[in-house]
Task: structure prediction
Amino acid sequence: MDQQLEARPYTAWQLIKVYWQSKQRLFAYFMFAIVLAMSIFLVGMDVVFTTWYNYFYDALQDYNRYAAFDLLVIFMFLAAVSIIVSVYRYYIQQYLALRWRRWLTEQFLDRWLAKRSYYYLENFDEHTDNPDQRIQEDVGSLVLSTLNLAIGLVSAITTIFAFIFVLWELSGYLNVSLGKYGTLHIPGYLVWVGIIYSMIGTSLTFKIGRPLVSLNFEQQRREANFRFAAIDLRSHAEHVALYRGEENQKTILQKIFSGVLENWYAIILRQKLLLWFTAGYNQVSVILPLIVALPNYFNKVFKLGGLMQALSAFSRIQDAFSFIVNSYTSIAEWQAVTRRLLTFLNHMDEIEKNAEKQNKFIFTENTEDKIFAKNVTINTPRGEKLLVNINQELIHGQNYVVKGHSGLGKSTFVRTLAGIWPYGSGEISLPEKKKSIMFLPQTSYMPLGSLREAILFPDKIHDIPDEFLIQLLQEFDLPQLTGRLDEITRWPEHLSPGELQRIAFIRVLIHQPFWVFLDESTAALDLAHEKQVYQLLKEKLPDCSVVSVGHHPSIDGYHDKEIDLEVYGVSHSD
Result:
């Protein structure tokens, strides 16, 4: 896939046009051109229909039965053509939106996962909320709203040019007596009435509806926060139940939901004010052309058919000029969605640049099968020093246990060696890439999918026989899972923390790394299972060096050397 979303700030126009500059642009332009052609054709059909009104009502006025029935047959044919074109225009427009959304969603996913932006946003950014919703919901809303508004605008402009000549010819002249100054002859006066009326309506709509943009943006944020709080409750249902924390959670949810309702009520009030105006505006637009056209009708400038055609043409032009008035709510929602996506996209750029600015680590490779940390200083995201001047050498073939009091920064030290902690400085030298290193966090991650796919995470290894996986499950005392390799479920909800940690060790045996870092990866295991997993590591991976972070003295015996990080610790008061 051609990656187009770069690591830089974006404007709304730049975000929209990126698809139209991609490798799919030729197909996109072709489909869009078809939709435009169909839209223009439908406007032409509207012109034909207004002409039909003229002939039909003239036939009624003349009591011409045969002409009226012939015109009804013509109308049915025209209506059938219009319906067919409308349906296929909708289909092609939606298909274009589908392809655009798929492409843009893939772009956002790649951008989100590139340079570990997902990790930085989740752990170090306080401004970007619910990136999952922005990708899942807002991208689709942006695509659909952009296409609908663009097609609507083109149709409005085409309608103006298509009907303005018709209405100009039907209007004739409006003669306004100026007394002793003579008479003012206004040609095409219905056109001028429609333009002036629409301009007044558009300006007032902007003034009344402008607050809806920020209100819709805020509503999206509050709705997403409420949804996230509900998901968080579901994810931690057992914890809440054990703590008897139902009332506390209810209070939290009610507080967040109150914010949702409060902002929603503000939207309702603003929408009500806007509706007062737009409803009155649209009702006046029904009677206004009749009032201004009746003088010429009674002066016999045109017959009944001409009057009906003039009213229809005026209505079309007035609607076209009032496109912004009638679409302002959609425009406000489009602006809110666009702002959310731009905030998400631009915050990724900001936090990546901030991480790059603060990341003074120098990573190198060596052929000595060692891991070096030279003059390594690790900071917090706020710039406070956590560990200072770390100088350590880890030699392959030996096993190490990392010690230090809770909160000292042991896990952060491991994250730094893994290359995902960007705050600090110093030189870190790792073995060649062919000598793989694997890192196991305390909480074992189980991706969505089957148990087999979860065990093989993070790599998709296809040549692992079931017999081997079953053997490993049995050796790690998980025989109850041997028959569930193809079962798809939310595994973290069905397995205990200890079972999840043992599955993580199965991954180690499958991937056979050169080094493995265990960040409290046995914290949920009892002593018997802890001993079991370390013995299996030593037995099945004799050439793998183990580096463990933990508080339990029971793990000391499985390691050759101790790394005491206390000597590198710095209190915040220093």
About this structure: DSSP finds 17 helices and eleven strands in the chain. The first helix runs from residue 12 to 17.
